[in-house]
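User: Second chain of the day. Same drill as before.
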Amino acid sequence: MPDPSVTRDRILDTAEALFAEKGLAATSVRDIASAVGLTAASLYNHFAGKEALYAAVLERGIRPLVEMLETLSALPDAEARTDAVIPQVVAHFARHPNVARLIYHEAVTGGAHLVPLARTWIQPILARALGEMKREAGVPWSEDEYRHVVAMWVQLVVGHFAVAPLMAELLGEDPLAPETVERHTEFLRKLARLVTRA
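Assistant: Same format as last time:
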């Protein structure tokens, strides 16, 4: 008998890829079930329907980011937190680039899941990042600029993976290749130091 957790992970992996490629509306439960090697009825044993499956894909992709930030807030200073969080967040999106595409798709289309996505997942991440920035002494940004700086980080981190095909053309290299991800990580670390320097 197959391990239900393995089957669930396979379903989530497949759904994540299909949702990113075709969009939520154009992806059917039958498409996902067929790609996993299940019947649609069997897939319903794991998820109540397409909406529940989509919500599970987003949760699996974004919850680890919230948990990372919660864990890292215990580190002693801003530089240590930045040096720890950037590689973890970039590595997470490198493993799940389709999650970045789903976030962008919701943002660009104003999809039905945009508000829950923003309120449940993105807003807490931004609020924590904002709190961290405000804790730092000597940050060269006004109160009005903090949110713009945090929004810039979302674009730099998520955008790199969401628009990977465009980045491949612009950079002339695969943005998902390990060496490119490593260079991007180091670039973001350097940028973080410049952005927070008074």
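Residues 57-195 form a domain with the Tetracycline Repressor; domain 2 fold (CATH 1.10.357).

User: Great, on to the next one.
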